[in-house]
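User: Could you walk me through two proteins back to back? I'd like the raw sequence and the structure tokens for each, with a short line separating them so I can tell where one ends and the next begins.

Assistant: Of course. Protein one, sequence then structure:
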Amino acid sequence: MSAPLFLVDELPSGESYTLGGAEGHHAATVQRLRVGERLLLADGRGGLADAVVTAVGKGALDVAITSRAYDAEPAPRLTVAQGIAKGDRGELAVQAMTEVGVDEILPWAAARSVAQWRGDRGAKSREKWAAVAREAAKQARRTWLPEVGGDPDVSTKQLAQRLSAAAAAYVLHEEATERLATAELPDSGEIVLVVGPEGGIDAAEVAVFTAAGAVPVRLGSTVLRTSTAGVAALSVLSARLNRW
């Protein structure tokens, strides 16, 4: 089994380090790491340190740093605009997309989104997505922590502006004739995928996005749920871009 990963604000520069706070509590109390066991420290921006536990305290660990590395930011950048969904389907989508390598997630206030992110509820919902992405990144041993954009969400107009600035943009739509598996992909810049909520993307939104330069695409002959469409599309792109 690979070593567990814990996120730190800054990668240690010395030969020893004390992992405290919430991450230290999780390592010492929840995972019960012991002296001699190996763990990974990541700063969420590509920095990675390999370490060995030298002492265990109450809610904290002392570790010895054995090596350091840096992973360059993946290119092209993979961003998914995820239509806000009711219940926990949005969180399920965020978790799975993070595990397969999404670089940024934009909560999108689609016309057919049943749930609405307004006021304090919107801020708390966005924070929940960010927390889910953080934990999923740790589980997947990711050195780059995905961003959760939006303030707290993005409108169709704002998303169209993002699509027009991307190196490539695709709208997952069941009536599209072009397949994502054969769509032309850029070597650099940003690729933006648009995933609709439970009720799908309406015709007016598709028109706005295509006017901004996005290409409607489909994955296959079946219709996927909003919680699985994004991760399936990212899997296709990850294989085609040699991330996998």
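----
Protein two, same layout:
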Amino acid sequence: MKTRQLASTGIMAALIVICAWITIPTVVPFTMQTFAIFLAVGLLGGKLGSLAVGVYLLLGAVGLPVFSGFRGGLGTFAGVTGGYLLGFLLLALVMWLGERLFGDNTVVFLLSAIAGLAVCYFFGTAWYLLLYTRTTGPVSLWTVLGSCVFPFLLPDGLKLALALVLRRRLHPALQMK
């Protein structure tokens, strides 16, 4: 890995941390993490963007307070919202797959980001439903979707639009490949 790639990956991991701290607390907190993930993959490409997400998750796993609410540690992954954290990596990997299969252009970026976000929502919701049912009791899928997915659709769409605008402006100057 070249020094520029390593530094850019670290900067994007740090941006994800900062965006995690921008939080509106709810059952599943509103944060800017998805924006940072979209931007990391959009600017660095799928490989380095996914690596930045992985670094972010590893920093949190070892206990650094990098997640929303300044939380960290393996216990965060074991909680009901831990699936969404792991879903962030799936989001980046789906975007990388889209880039590998169909190239690096705006349409592929947009469609792979939407597909990756759907995978993140699916994985996180399934995790939430499973753990909540085990620890608290039965809950309906519609209740979980109403708390964990539906309120996030518009904000995540706006984050994707912002990342798309920044990507189009910055991508030509930051060619990492």
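The chain has one domain: 3-174.

Let me know if you want the two compared in more detail.
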